[in-house]
Amino acid sequence: MHFVEVKGILSSKNGMNIYRGCSHGCIYCDSRSKCYGFTHEFEDIEVKANAPELLEHALRTKRKKCIIGTGSMCDPYLHIEEELNLTRRCLELINQYGYGVTVLTKSARVLRDLDLLQSINEKSKAVVQMTLTTFDEDLCRILEPNVSTTYERFEALMEFKRAGIPTVVWLSPILPFINDTEDNINGILDYCIEAGVKGIICFGMGLTLREGNREYYYRALDRHLPGLKEKYARVYGNAYELNSPNNRQLMRIFEKRCAENGILSRPDECFSYLQEFPLKYEQMSLFDY
Hints:
With 289 residues, this protein is an alpha/beta fold. It is 43% helix and 13% strand. It has 12 helices and 11 strands. Helix 1 packs parallel to helix 3 (86-97), helix 3 packs parallel to helix 4 (114-123) and helix 6 (150-163) runs parallel beside helix 7 (182-195). The model is unreliable at 283-289 (pLDDT under 50).
């Protein structure tokens, strides 16, 4: 890892990425794509050392309370978070200043900050988003080798359910000819239903490949699933969107089971829920200034 000082931490939509790069090793990671302009090795994590100071300034000067999001590009609970505690320090500030938060992760390491997330949720709103792609644990260890397994993430979702903290799951990506099966989708949906998730974000059954992540993905296929790269090349060429041949039937299962269990399933509904700051706290915040 290496440290940098940055000039700003919040995007125009109040999102932040404390780290840049990743140590999880997921074979399909879009963040590896060349379009994101990495000037360092992806595994050499760039640490925004002054993130807490910048965040505190932003929170103190905002005129209106809102939801602060983290994890959209790089996971806030990488292995180095255990040592650096930058995500925790930022959550402490969000809690202190009365903002809401949503975190997106693949790591059960998020449970370490359960106390802060509970405190934020009591004052405003905290939502934990968890990515689930692969029900089979052995396959999960191939596709997502250096991160919590799907079952470990499910156990984390159950902990948040018991703590009264709402959760949203990202069902993405689903890899053609690998995990695009009814058993896989139903297994993940079983976990989501048991964990009482508020919503599931799914843009269809498939994945995207761009320059940078395509090459990494194909090298992983050669190591773990020989011959599959050639099948991808025959079926998809250099396409950006690689929809599963099973997309239609799997989406029917997804939409039906979500409707039966009162789970938000349209991306726009899920995003609206994630961005919505509780009205009663928004009204209270008018008196803070």
